[in-house]
Structures are given as C-alpha cells and as structure tokens.
Amino acid sequence: MYILLNEYQLTEENIKLRFLACSLVRDFARAYFPDSTVKPFGSSVNTFGKLGSDVDMFLDFHDTGKHATKMKKGPFEMEYQMKRLPSERLATQRILSVIGDCLDNFGPGCVNVQKILNARCPLVKFAHQPTGFQCDLSVSNSIAIRSSELLYIYGCLDSRVRALVFTIRCWARVHGLTNSAPGTWITNFSLTMMVMFFLQRRSPPIIPTLDQLKELADEKDKHIIGGYDCSFVSDLRKIKPTKNTETLEVLLGEFFEYFGNFDFRKNSINLRKGKEVNKPESSPLYIWNPFEQDLNISKNVNQPQLEKFVAMARESAWILQKEDKTQQIINKEPWGLASLLIPLGKSNSSKMKNRMKGIGSETIRSLLDSLKLNNANSQQKAVGK
Ligand code: UTP
Ligand code: MG
C-alpha cells in the first residue's frame, strides 16, 4: 500500500506545474480584475492528489478592495459607482463567462473550454495541453477551501491515512466504481470522506471527529462562512496522536467489511459527529457535507452504483480473508492487495493471462510485476518509510 502511495502521489514537479497552470489563468483574469488571483484547491493541495487528478482552481477577489481603500485615503474622497448585479450568483456566472471566452480565444494551450454556468457551483472546464491537466476554474468558494484544509489536516495526522485512501481510490478505479467523467458513480471526494469516517470509527479511533477538531480551535481558527461554523484547529500539535496500532493490511480488510455491511438504507455518514446518523432523506448514499450540514456530497450516486460498491467491498473482504495465499504464491498469481487490483470475476487461475490483459492501467500492471518480484524484505523497507 505504501508502494502504491509512492507511485501515485503527486510529485513536487507536478505540484509546481499545477501552480504554474493557475498563474496562467491568473494573468488572463487580471486583464479584467487587476487585483484578482487564482489558487489551486482540492486534491492538488490536500495531499490526496493522484497523478492524473484534475486541477481545481478558484478565482479570488480577496484583495480587490486594496485600490479603493488607497484612493479614499488620498486628498479627495472619490466615490466609485459600482456596477450592480441582482445576485452574487449572476456576478459569478458573468465573471466566469468572460474569462472562459478569453481562455478559449487566447489562452495558450487551452483547449476544450466548456462553460458550465448553471451548475450549483458554476465553473469553466478546460484542458491545458502543454501540461496535460484537466482544469476546473470556479470563483472562490470558501467552504470548499475549508474542506481541502480539513483533508490536509487528516492526511498529516497518521501515515496510514493517505496510504489507505490511495489504495481504496486505486481499487475503486480498477473496478469501475469511480470515473473521471461526471455521473452517478461515487466521486473520489466522497470516497475519501468514507475512508475518513471509517478511520474515525476504529477503536481506538485513528483520526478525530470534526466536532473534536472544533473544540481544539482557538480564536484564529474561527471561520463562520455563510452562517456555517467551519472552525477547526490548525495547530496539529494540539491533536493527540492515536493509540491505534492496527496495520494497513488489517485496515484494508476492515474497510471492506465495514462498508460491505453498512446499513445504507437507514444510516448516513457524518464526519462531524464521527458516527452513523439516521438518513435525513432518501438518497441511496448520504454523506453529510462536513460544513454545509444540509448538503449531501454524494447526492449524485444512484442505487445501482451503490449496490455495485457494496458487492465489490464484500467480494474484496472475502478475497482478503479466504484466499489460499500459499496456493496463489506457488502458482505465481497475484494475492492479497495485488489480486484486488485486477478486475474481479476472472479469478480462475487458468485465466491468468486474461486477467493481466484486463488491467486498464500500465502503471498498475508494472506495479503488480514489482509486487511479485519484491520479496517480503523489500516490502518491509517500504513500510518503514
Ligand atoms: P473534486 O471533485 O475535484 O475532488 O472537488 P478532489 O478532492 O479534487 O479529488 P480528485 O482527485 O479531483 O478526484 C474539488 C474540491 O471541491 C470541494 C472539495 O474541497 C474537493 O476537494 N468539494 C467537492 C466540496 O466541497 N463538495 C463537494 O460535494 C465536492
Ligand atoms: Mg479535483
């Protein structure tokens, strides 16, 4: 699992390129809004980014007041007449619309520009050819940024957190439970929240609940955004390390066991409380937005997709428990985690070649090879890292 993490996590260069893509958009935005800036959020900066993840970026007008303030302090009181728009949403749509057009017409290397302005969170999607990034540009959404900060903190608390998330994300991708196109499947963000919830439910818990992080917050950590309390501690030293010593191998099996048997019909996932709560409405999968508590972050997931997830989790738990590893090793077949990274339903040993063909990604194929070659010794070294 640590090998997977090392192979897939963003490299320093890749993170720098993501910031570079943001600065390109910033230069365009500044043609219209001189004090604006563009910053990355989401998995590019929350430590859960995987090579190939999109670049979520937001336009920030935080500093736009600067000039106006300076002018007022001068010898003349100048009054600016501001353009008035009936709503903030309309302003957001218009801003994104002009910047989208600008990127489309003049953005070097920017292709497939799509304006998705009627979404709950309006955005402009485009591909940046020189870096190969798929980019999503939105206007500053303070709550989404707080979610990124929260995940960043969780990712720093214990080395098992990111390794487990990366493994579950790879597993979900291999089995078609997630997809880079929008649809009725579980998003990586929802999946990451499910892993966090599972880690809160361990005994003893591996990470604290959001309410516990809020209790540790001091004055400077206080954030009330749109009436929602988004406060949580930022000083990691205030958070007591967990006493939980479960291995990643155990946690992986337990994750599948837990969600394979979770009562999704009745219960929802609430990271603030760190416990299962009755579902407030009938969506198949209900994961409370950690801050906007009236929103379900997995509202898009339909019943068949949820059932597929549950079936795959059960089958994976079963494979990890029941597999006759000795036989698999003698037959030189993948076992344990490696066998979970191959599409299931083709596990007959005589179909080994087909199984290898079925692996979508070249990287997973070479990973499996390296897992096969590496003996227990080298795996231990990786865990030591
Ligand atoms: P993404 O869907 O791009 O997720 O949303 P991600 O975490 O970056 O994961 P990948 O790697 O692209 O698949 C970007 C960010 O938007 C916020 C979260 O902060 C998320 O990290 N977000 C997304 C929400 O706050 N609520 C949502 O329902 C979805
Ligand atoms: Mg993203």
From TrEMBL:
GO cellular component annotations of the record: mitochondrion
UniProt organism field: Lamprotornis superbus
Magnesium in keyword set: yes
Domain PAP-associated: 250-285
Domain of life: Eukaryota
Entry annotated with the keyword rRNA-binding: no
GO MF annotation list: metal ion binding; poly(A) RNA polymerase activity
CDD domains, alphabetized: NT_PAP_TUTase
Cofactor(s) recorded in Swiss-Prot or TrEMBL: Mn(2+); Mg(2+)
Name by which UniProt lists this protein: Poly(A) RNA polymerase, mitochondrial
Poly(A) RNA polymerase mitochondrial-like central palm domain: residues covered: 2-155
Annotated keywords: Magnesium, Metal-binding, Transferase
Gene Ontology biological process terms from the UniProt entry: RNA 3'-end processing
